[in-house]
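Renewal narrative, Specific Aim 1. Our central claim is that a sequence can be written position by position from structural information alone. The example that follows is taken directly from our test logs and has not been curated for this report. It begins with the C-alpha cells describing the chain, in the order in which they were read.
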C-alpha cells in the first residue's frame, strides 16, 4: 500500500496541514487478517517499503512508516475495510457501518460507514458539500492518495471536547468513510497513532 499527500490545487478550499494530514507513508503488503478475527494483518515478505527520499508515481516524496499498521479486528463495509487497533472492541456489523472502540472507554470510536453513490457525484462534489454543511467549525485538510485513490480529510468539533476526523472517498460506487471521534482528552500524538495505524491497513474497492 502507498499513501501520499496530494498537493491542493490552486483555488481549492484552503486546507491546513496538521497531525495526520501530514502523513506520508509507504507500506508494503498491508493486508487484513480473517474478517472479524483478532490476528495480525497478513504481510508479503517479498515486498519492502520504498527507501526514504524516493518518489511515488505521482512525484510526491515518500518515507517509511513511523507507526505500525493496526492488527485488531477487521471493520468492513462495501467499498472499504480497515483493521481496528489491537484489543479494541467492535460493534455489530450492519450494511451501512461497522465500528470499534477502546475497552473501558465511552465516546472515543473509529469506524467505517458507507452510502450508495449511484454514479451521481464526484469525490470533489461530495467533499465540497460536506465542507459547506460543516460551516465555519469544519476544515478540509490536505487530501491523501491511497493506492491511487483520492481520499479527502475533514476535521471538526462535534460538541465540546469531542473532535471528529473523517477520511472519505468513492469506492465500488459507494460513498465510504473512515471516521474517528475523540472524546477522552487524547493528545495529538495519541490521535495520530490511532489514525495512522488504521489508514495503513485501508483497502478500497
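The sequence written for that structure reads:
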Amino acid at each position: 500500500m502507498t499513501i501520499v499527500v496530494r498537493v491542493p490545487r490552486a483555488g481549492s478550499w484552503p486546507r491546513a496541514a496538521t497531525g495526520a494530514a501530514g502523513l506520508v507513508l509507504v507500506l508494503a503488503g498491508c493486508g487484513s487478517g480473517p474478517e472479524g478475527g483478532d490476528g495480525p494483518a497478513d504481510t508479503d515478505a517479498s515486498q519492502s517499503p520504498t527507501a526514504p527520499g524516493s518518489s511515488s508515481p505521482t512525484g510526491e516524496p515518500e518515507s517509511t512508516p513511523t507507526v505500525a499498521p493496526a492488527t485488531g479486528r477487521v471493520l468492513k463495509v462495501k467499498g472499504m475495510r480497515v483493521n481496528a487497533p489491537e484489543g479494541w472492541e467492535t460493534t455489530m456489523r450492519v450494511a451501512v457501518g461497522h465500528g470499534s472502540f477502546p475497552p473501558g472507554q465511552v465516546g472515543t470510536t473509529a469506524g467505517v460507514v458507507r452510502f450508495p453513490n449511484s454514479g451521481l457525484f464526484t469525490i470533489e462534489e461530495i467533499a465540497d458539500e460536506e465542507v459547506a454543511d460543516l460551516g465555519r467549525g469544519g476544515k478540509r485538510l490536505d487530501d491523501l492518495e491511497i493506492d491511487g485513490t483520492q481520499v479527502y480529510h475533514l476535521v471538526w468539533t462535534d460538541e465540546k471536547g469531542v473532535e471528529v476526523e473523517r477520511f472519505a472517498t468513492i469506492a465500488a460506487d459507494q460513498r465510504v468513510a473512515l471516521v474517528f471521534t475523540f472524546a477522552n482528552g487524547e493528545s495529538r500524538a495519541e490521535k495520530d497513532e490511532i489514525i495512522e495505524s488504521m489508514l495503513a491497513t485501508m483497502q478500497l474497492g
